[in-house]
Amino acid sequence: MSKSIKLAILGLGTVGTGVINLISDNLDELKRRSGRDIIITEVGTRRQRDDIDPDITQNSDLMAIAASDNVDIVIEVIGGTTLAKDIILHAIKNGKHVVTANKALLAEHGNEIFALAEANNVHVAYEAAVAGGIPIIKVMREALAANKVDWLAGIINGTGNFIMTEMRDKGRPFAEVLAEAQELGYAEADPTFDVEGIDAAHKLALLASIAFGIPLQFDQVYCEGITDITLQDVNYAEELGYRIKHVGFAVRRDGNANSDGTDQTHSDSAGIELRVHPTLIPQNTLLANVNGVKNAVLVNSHPLGQTLYYGDGAGAGATASAVMADVMDLVRVLGSEADSSHSETNHGHHVPHLGFIPDQLSDTPILRAEQMITGYYLRVHAYDNPGVLADITRILSDAGINIDAILQKPAHKLGQVPVIILTLPVVESQMNLAIEKIEKLEATTGKVIRIRLDELA
Length: 457
Fold this sequence. Notes:
Blueprint: E1 5-10, H1 14-25, H2 27-34, E2 38-44, E3 57-59, H3 62-66, E4 73-76, H4 83-93, E5 97-100, H5 103-119, E6 124-125, H6 136-143, E7 148-155, H7 158-170, H8 174-184, H9 192-195, H10 198-212, E8 222-223, H11 231-239, E9 242-253, E10 271-282, E11 294-302, E12 305-312, H12 316-338, H13 343-347, E13 373-383, H14 388-398, E14 403-408, E15 416-427, H15 428-440, E16 444-453
Parallel strand pairs: 1-2, 1-4, 2-3, 4-5, 5-6, 8-10, 10-16
Antiparallel strand pairs: 7-9, 7-11, 9-10, 11-12, 13-15, 13-16, 14-15
Helix pairs in contact: 1-12, 4-5, 5-10, 7-8, 14-15
């Protein structure tokens, strides 16, 4: 009889309960696919639950569960970066494999956690940490293992995407849509992680490490939220053939070309761009049509080209599905180890945590914000005086910035005219200098509104 695989679930919130339900509903299917009985032996919960199978031990001492002889795989779904970190490190030191949905923990402490797992010959799996039910981690580490990733772009926070979709489709202001997102449970009472891009930055750090074989560097991700996006800019973008989405980008720069393929004479910076911010993307692209709370990741790699991965980025079912996909992988590893006395040899067949052999991770630099290259949407308010538009375009030209389109709207209060300008890709530092000069013109008023633009080509 094959050895049963024993699971511990730490945390019985939405995801933990979803995992229990999935195992109960699909138990026969899981056994047919793995060849093993998969049973939950312990759950970590602060209060006793009457709806849990009485054969499952309920315990509030999570550290004890992480070291229990009655557990093979620890599933961590409590969240946070303090207690969760201590529990996972404790489990690893006690020879337990770990499955986690904790993107913040891995983005900030993953290098330490993965190194300890390697040293203790165990695995830490984290499919559920990025984009919920979309198997993007498996795709990046396995299906695209023979490809060189040039860039990826992801809508990887459902709350932000819901807000931007409602603003565009229904003409509702940001604050009103955010309040509804909180009522629906899409956003927390404190929505900072979602609307300021921190949640997406955690996920982007993980994706970028797998894409480019670099250590996790969450602190190097440029992060900008959507709180300042107005209906005015959403509508102007639509008029110009674009949609504003909150997008995470990881881009490999070789220092020789702009993002549009033209010669790069204004910068020789080579490295990786890691950035999360509002972005204008063409209306006719697949990514622009990812709406509501859905997530999607677009990957451009060689030789495959562009591929898009789309689905539910959160929720009990989607996240539990990703958690159990990891469990199934680990069950197969444990099965092969049980059938062999050479467990270290079998360990070598498992996909490395970040998709690259640990001692082969690259020290490729992360580019600073001022080195990033994107196109731009600029909204300038100016008095309707002769020569104003010529002054603005001259400043951009002198800075080596090529204009792609200009939209001048009718004058409104006090004779001010909104001028909308789209530019071709340019180094951020050059755009900063140009905006500074535009804002000093006597005929312009207020700050220049800027939103980055990417053609996804």
